[in-house]
Design a protein that fits this description.
Length: 226
């Protein structure tokens, strides 16, 4: 069925696998030692993003992040226990969604797709720097042509902190992204920005009238071939 503003997006939408919004990212050793540690544990390095980096979540969900052109990352997400074929996203650095679609036959289904337009050109949307923020608008376009414009606020944490995930340590910046529509309804996302890898992973969502925060712990990152 085609989507409209009042129809929930199929499967687990919501910016990398959460339910939709209103429809709906260790002290660091010397670089050489850090690289050696990654290799020893088979941990992802920046070059792996072009080949695919796999994320595993505590709820059994899986996502693959793969760089394309112009800092765009394609995300393929499959929720645990879901009979549907999953979701596919395109996002600037995995942080700013540009499109979200149900998959059919391994490809995006045009009849079940959303596109997002920002008040800033995607090429100029900032990557996280500790203590910075970005404020603008994002317009969601539905398959039937309906649109919803929201105020978007991205706040980047004040520290570039080390985080251990499985056997790997990464430099990260916590990110909070909030989206508020004209009626005052809002959605807030928690993301982890991986400074060296160059992409963000969504780990939590809360929304007005939603009954609390949904969290999904990231338990492992690996190269897609592993």
């Amino acid at each position: 069925m085609p989507l409209t503003r009042d129809v929930k997006f199929p499967a687990d939408h919501g910016r990398a696998g959460f339910p939709p919004r209103k429809l709906a990212r260790v002290a660091i050793a010397a670089a050489a030692l850090e690289a050696a540690g990654f290799a020893a544990f088979g941990c992802p390095v920046p070059e792996d993003l072009s080949k695919g980096i796999r994320a595993e979540f505590s709820d059994g969900g899986l996502a693959e992040y793969r760089a394309t052109d112009n800092d765009i990352v394609t995300v393929r997400f499959t929720a645990a226990g879901q009979p549907d074929p999953g979701m596919i996203y395109e996002a600037k650095a995995g942080l700013y969604d540009l499109s979200a679609s149900s998959m059919r036959g391994g490809k995006a289904d045009p009849g079940q797709s959303l596109t997002y337009r920002y008040s800033t050109d995607p090429a100029d949307l900032p990557v996280p720097k500790p203590g910075d923020a970005w404020v603008g608008t994002v317009t969601t376009e539905y398959p039937d042509g309906a649109e919803l414009t929201e105020t978007a606020v991205y706040v980047f944490g004040r520290a570039d902190v080390a985080r251990k995930i499985g056997e790997c340590s990464f430099r990260t910046v916590p990110v909070k992204a909030s989206f508020i529509d004209a009626e005052g309804d809002w959605v807030a996302l928690d993301l982890i920005w991986f400074t060296d890898l160059g992409f963000a992973v969504t780990t939590g969502q809360s929304a007005s009238g939603d009954g609390g925060r949904r969290a999904r712990a990231l338990v492992a990152l690996s190269t897609s071939g592993n």
